[in-house]
Amino acid sequence: MSSGVVQKQVGQTIVQLPQVRQRSATSCQTAASRLSASNARRSTSGMRRPMRDLAAATASLTWMAIERIKFGKPSVVGAVTGSVAGLATITPASGYVGPLGAVALGLAASCLCFAAVSIVKRGFKVDDALDVLGVHGVGGALGSIALPFAASIGIGGAALSHDIPQQFAVQVLGVASAAIWSAVVTAIIIKIVAAVTGLRAAREAEIQGLDFVSHGETGYHVSA
Predict the structure, then answer these.
(1) DSSP 3-state assignment of 130?
(2) What span, in angstroms and rounded, lies between the C-alpha atoms of 152 and 157?
């Protein structure tokens, strides 16, 4: 706000009165926009942590249920893997989904990632010990592609930049670009590693133990 002085004659006396001029409408609108954006950022940040926890818990329970149905009992490794699948899936959508969307993503994450892990290890015969492709890759892609639909379930979360069809197209393009980039760079790294050290130890070395073969040490001393 800015102030000026106006002179007013009362009888024979000239009185100086302060004159207050209001800010322009543009300045008020700018301040309101900044306040609204700040509140939106705080609201989005506050939604991220609980939604991540909710998705991880849902995915962990779902993975354990799948193991119970398929193998007769759940496992601790399965519970942890399910939790990681939920976290990997909710991460791209974090801040944009509400509670129902987080539960839906956690449920879908375990179902899809459980099948992907089986396909990668048994179908493709890939020794993916940490389930990088089946859990992190598939889960991250699922969360990115499903973001527009999960964000529309229930309430909570930030508004999308586009409507659902346009946002879906943006997400698919992003996932496809990341997948192609990752595939090309991984292929280059594999070629370099294969030429320098080889991709896998020999069968005999695996049986004897890599600690002994590579370093001349024994990792575990087992006595009869």
Answers:
(1) coil
(2) 9
Radius of gyration for the alpha carbons in the chain, expressed in angstroms and rounded: 29
- CA–CA gap between residue 57 and residue 64 (Å, rounded): 11
CA dihedral 145, 147, 150, 154 (to 10 degrees): -160
> Using CA atoms, how far apart are residues 88 and 136, in angstroms rounded to an integer?
6
The answer to whether residues 86 and 60 touch, using CB atoms and an 8 Å cutoff, is: yes
Domain borders along the chain are 2-160
Check if CATH label 2.40.50.100 holds for domain 2-160.
no
CA-angle at 139, arms to 73 and 63, nearest 5° = 10
Residue 65, classified by CB atoms within 10 Å of its CB into exposed (0-12), middle (13-18) or buried (19+), is middle
CB-count exposure of residue 92 (10 Å: 0-12, 13-18, 19+): buried
How many CA atoms, within 13 angstroms, populate the side-chain half-sphere of residue 150?
31
Q: CB atoms < 10 A from the CB of 31, how many?
A: 11
Q: Is 67's pLDDT higher than 80?
A: yes
> What gap in Å lies between CA 164 and CA 147, rounded to an integer?
9
Helix and strand totals (H; E) in the chain:
7, 2
pLDDT in tens, 168-187: 999 999 999 999 999 999 99
pTM for this model (two decimals): 0.70
